[in-house]
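TASK: fixed-backbone design
INPUT:
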């Protein structure tokens, strides 16, 4: 099966059920608005009838119904579209006035300053079924969303700026999102610039990582999405399929070649030592020197520098909305230090102002706190929020750092947090907590770091 066919299969049966629900709701809504409407054309007027009987308009009391008669109808058509890739095209009639009323892009094409008077327009990058779904919405004010074409319909709605069709497409995808299709939806939804859908995909992948990374659709994601997910075993599975796509032998050397720099993003040091020894170390993808350095990193007091990431690195794809929630992390240090403040990740959509409350606790008792206004410049760098006075901490004692940022902007965040971080001569060990301090998590998108001296 082709990659496109596998992507379509990755959408679960629930998507089909939901698409039928959307379709039925749309039909019910149309019936309520127009009790006398009928989706059937009268016997004297078919979609391709150029010579209709006189007074064909009579059975249709509303402008919406008369407009709907023109859907896929050559009658009075003044433009035709050849839609789809070569070998799979479909020729569809259109009416410039109706299309221009429904889409600003069509208005510019037909009535703008640079309008071209073409009788036939080729659109090779849009699926014919998706284009028809968009035309049906423009002509009939009805949404007919199908499971296998909902992404293509979203693409068409975005391309021709039909936002009231795009929104239901996104809602349908969010409703049907599951671990089985989260990776492929993440890969395909990024070009649509729908941060809400992208965020939901990340949340599902984060919450059900094992199911998501073992799903059939995972191997069909693009390289850019692979770089963001970066889990070793899943990356190897993707590399095997990518070798097949490039007609390469399934050797360790070729897997490493297709993985490229993504290999160094797999956060191998976050794996347990046993897991590393039984999987990554024996995969053949790592060199002997790399394997030796990683074993030393696990066991030696003086740790070698690794190419894999050893901290939390924010990216444009990793976005988080604060919503006034408490983020916290438990930590201990092997030397006495003074905690001067925290570093927060800020807005991923330009500069923004935040109000943040920070606290440092020991056994539930606040040792220091501060509430202050702070400003983020829109970069992925953290910005500091300081205590009024630095708070002293003892060695080998657990403390809890808490922050409650208040802001509505999407923000960067870190992920794949390390259980131990070396900072100069000081070692910081962490236990990661999330969302107000419930259970411990292996990986948590904590939004802040520590400033100490």
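OUTPUT:
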């Amino acid at each position: 099966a082709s990659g496109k066919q596998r992507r379509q299969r990755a959408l679960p049966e629930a998507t089909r059920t939901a698409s039928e629900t959307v379709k039925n709701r749309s039909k019910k809504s149309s019936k309520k608005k127009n009790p006398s409407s009928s989706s059937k054309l009268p016997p004297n007027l078919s979609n391709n009838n150029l010579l209709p009987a006189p007074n064909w308009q009579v059975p249709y009391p509303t402008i919406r119904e008369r407009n709907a008669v023109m859907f896929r109808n050559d009658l009075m058509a003044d433009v035709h579209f050849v839609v789809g890739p070569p070998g799979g095209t479909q020729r569809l009639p259109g009416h410039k006035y109706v299309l221009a009323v429904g889409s600003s892009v069509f208005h510019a094409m037909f009535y703008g300053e640079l309008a071209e008077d073409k009788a036939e327009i080729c659109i090779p990058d849009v699926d014919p079924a998706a284009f028809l779904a968009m035309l049906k919405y423009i002509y009939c004010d009805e949404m007919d969303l199908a499971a296998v074409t909902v992404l293509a319909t979203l693409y068409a709605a975005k391309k021709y700026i039909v936002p009231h069709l795009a929104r239901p497409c996104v809602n349908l995808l969010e409703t049907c999102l599951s671990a089985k299709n989260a990776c492929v939806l993440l890969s395909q939804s990024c070009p649509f610039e729908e941060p809400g859908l992208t965020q939901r995909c990340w949340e599902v992948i984060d919450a059900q990582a094992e199911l998501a990374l073992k799903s059939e659709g995972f191997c069909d994601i693009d390289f850019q999405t692979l770089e963001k997910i970066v889990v070793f075993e899943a990356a190897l599975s993707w590399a095997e399929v990518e070798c097949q796509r490039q007609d390469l032998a399934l050797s360790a050397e070729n897997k490493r070649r297709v993985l490229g720099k993504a290999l160094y993003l797999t956060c191998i040091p976050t794996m347990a030592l046993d897991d590393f020894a039984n999987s990554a170390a024996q995969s053949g993808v790592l060199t002997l020197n790399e394997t030796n350095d990683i074993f030393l990193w696990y066991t030696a007091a003086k740790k070698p520098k690794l190419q894999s990431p050893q901290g939390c690195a924010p990216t444009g794809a990793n976005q988080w909305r604060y919503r006034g929630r408490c983020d916290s992390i438990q930590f201990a240090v092997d030397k006495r230090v003074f905690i001067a403040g925290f570093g927060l990740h800020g807005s991923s959509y330009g500069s923004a102002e935040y109000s943040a409350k920070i606290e440092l606790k020991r056994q539930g008792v606040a040792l220091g706190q501060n509430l202050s206004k702070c400003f983020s410049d829109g970069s992925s760098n953290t910005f500091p929020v300081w205590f009024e006075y630095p708070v002293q901490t003892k060695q080998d004692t657990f403390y809890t750092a808490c922050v409650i940022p208040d802001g509505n902007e999407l923000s960067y965040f870190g992920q794949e947090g390390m259980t131990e971080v070396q900072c100069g001569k000081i070692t910081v060990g962490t236990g990661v907590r999330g969302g107000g301090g419930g259970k411990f998590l292996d990986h948590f998108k904590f939004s802040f770091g520590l400033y100490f001296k």
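COMMENT: Confidence is low (pLDDT under 50) at residues 1-19, 25-46, 309-319, 432-448.
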